[in-house]
TrEMBL record:
InterPro entries: CHIT_BIND_RR_consensus (IPR031311), Cuticle_Struct_Prot (IPR050468), Insect_cuticle (IPR000618)
Record-level GO cellular component terms: chitin-based extracellular matrix
Signal peptide interval: 1-19
Name of the molecule in the record: Endocuticle structural glycoprotein SgAbd-8
Species this protein is from: Bicyclus anynana (Squinting bush brown butterfly)
Gene it is expressed from: LOC112044905
Keywords in alphabetical order: Cuticle, Signal
Coiled coil spans: none
Length: 126
């Protein structure tokens, strides 16, 4: 019983702290969906959160699929402005942004070994 009361108290504190941080929406533009499946929207809060997106149906390769392009921006708790551009299509979600980690370059010795393995694999397939 004490455990249940503690959990309920914790949830109520979390709920009140989350609700206290609600920001006013200063931009809320929506257009669509249209007959061709296209749409676009943009949303911005007074705290500097911005998100926009547009989508359209593409018929590449026979099967129609949705192509989505957008971006969002906000300020992280450490003060860094996060700006992410993205596309999403039949091949998945493709984000780009300066804050995203990137893999280190492949050392030349490892690349030569990978190239050698690929060549051997092709020779064995013939």
């Amino acid at each position: 019983m004490k455990y249940t009361v503690g959990v309920l108290l914790l949830l109520s504190v979390l709920r009140s702290s989350i609700c206290a941080d609600v920001e006013a929406i200063i931009r809320n533009d929506f257009d669509g969906p249209h007959d061709d499946g296209s749409y676009k929207w943009a949303l911005q809060t007074e705290g500097g959160i911005y998100h926009e997106q547009r989508g359209s149906v593409q018929a590449a390769g026979g099967e129609p699929s949705l192509l989505v392009e957008g971006q969002y921006q906000y300020t992280a708790p450490d003060g860094q402005v996060i700006n992410l551009l993205y596309t999403a299509d039949a091949g998945g979600f493709h984000p780009t942004g300066a804050h995203l980690p990137t893999p280190p370059p492949v050392p030349p010795q490892i690349q030569r070994a990978l190239d050698y393995i690929a060549r051997q694999s092709r020779l064995n397939d013939v």
